[in-house]
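Protein modeling request. Please complete all fields; requests missing the sequence field cannot be processed.
Requester role: graduate student
Desired output: 3D structure, token encoding
Chains: 1
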Amino acid sequence: MGWNYGDILDAVGDVIPADRPALIQGDRVIQWGDFVRRTNNLARNMRERGVGADDKVAFYLRNHPAYLETLGACFKGRQVHVNVNHRYVDEELAYIIDNSDAKAVVFESVFADNVRKLRERLPQVTLWIEVGETPSAEPTVDFAESYEELAEQGDGSKLGIERSGDDLLFMYTGGTTGMPKGVMWGHDDLWGSGGRGVGPLGGEPPKTIEEYASNVKNNPMIGVMMPCCPLMHATGLFVSMGALTRGSTIVTLPGSGFDPEEAWAAVEKHKIMSLAIVGDAFARPLAKALDENPGRWDISSLRMMVSSGVMWSPEVKQALLKH
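Delivered output (323 residues):
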């Protein structure tokens, strides 16, 4: 049947201490025990509302703990992730949600006006889920359900369903000519492209999920990572997926823009070990902030930066390496 991210997250959730932070944004911390419980609830509640295996779920979200929770829920419930560029409006938004055959849309309250305009154009969407500005906020869209209620309703138990390595993840890319294209990844193929769980200490890929979970439990380099780039793009998403499957902690910065000083402050505060960036667009301002603020932040925890998508020039790498 192949490897499935829902099965992997179930197994990792069994071996990671429940009080270890899974997701951090600002002052909000979601521990691993809560991440397991909430993703199980979300998956089950979406299925009970008619969004089941192979149904598409559009993620109309900025970097937010809800993005990674909903991703985990989709893996567990066999629903298919569809990334939506949150900077799109009107025709672009309607195109992606329609082209992907999305049956559910998870969106932030800040996009409520756009969602209201979209509804009549997308009759195939049967479930709209609103992520409030705070966990206690009520939905501002009258036809939407509360994200927080769906995450909290239920006993948090595993779904107990059979999954497949052929379950899908959609990744829409706007980097080609014409309209965005939906790249369809099977779970087993995507897992294989990342080395099938070969850890930082090397060795042979594990043959079973139980063996992989044991490796995670005994891995001394789990650490904390932060995607500086948007989760709606492949670099931020795939690196974060790798971190989740290792039982790591993922820190996200609030808002839609990138602030290098905020990023370095987060590295110091949370002892972040790895960053995901997209080339010089992120690396250059990060280097500039360090040059202009010598000794301001303790970044001694940082061990690795991962970049993909655009050029990361040698001179900017050297500017970072000197720090």
